[in-house]
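Provenance and format

Records in this collection were gathered into a single text stream. Each protein contributes a sequence line and a token line. The two records reproduced below are adjacent in the stream.
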Amino acid sequence: METKVWLGMFGIIVAACVGGALLFLLLGWAWYTWGPIIAIVIVFTLVWVIAQLVNRRRERAYAD
């Protein structure tokens, strides 16, 4: 049982590291290509899209 917990935790850590690295690469590329203003716009756009997805999921949960 403990092995399953540790493997799950390891999987979550690896996924978070890979996701963070991809986000870092995307932001670095945007910063290098278009400059800091567009990089900030891209970050806010990504945050807004994620917030909209979470909001829709919660609205559906409350509607049911």
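Adjacent record:
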Amino acid sequence: MVYCVTCGAKNEDGAKICVSCGRPIVYSGRFDKNVSQPREMCFRERHEKGDHIGLISFGTFLLLLGIFFTFIPNLASQIETFFQDWQLVQVAENIYLPAPSSSHPSLYFAITEFCIVFGIAQIILLSLEFIQHLSIHRKAETAAGIVFWLGAGNLVYMLSTESIPWFQFWIVLLILLGISQIARAVVIVASRTKSN
């Protein structure tokens, strides 16, 4: 077995192209499975590239927050009003949970827009990860983020139109989080199956 220097996938001896990323495989001692030092260096280089994408993602998140707070009038006061509006609601016998006493559609709509824009930014980042041939784990993590942010945007929109009640919103959001993690696992398993 030989390991691809770009993505780290296992390939059969004699393979000329990596089965995972499609890059040419160079045969020399430095890519051999038994020569761990150079292979670790290759993984470190790929990990550092992944760190750059992670920083871009975090920077995009902060940039969008700044833009939304700058261009949406009274967003800070809407958030303050939202948290001042909470009360305990009985959801079952002797079980009380916090919930807003009234709807806040303009705040919910701003959150919807943020989720959708950040989800689209994640799609662009996923494209960059494919261009840079980053690890499948990094791509799977970004794919899970796309599912979560776009799904969350849709859910908060439903909350803004009052087509979903508050507690049902949280239940569906938890389900969405689970679906995004399942999507992440499916991408990783599918990639490993392809490379074997």
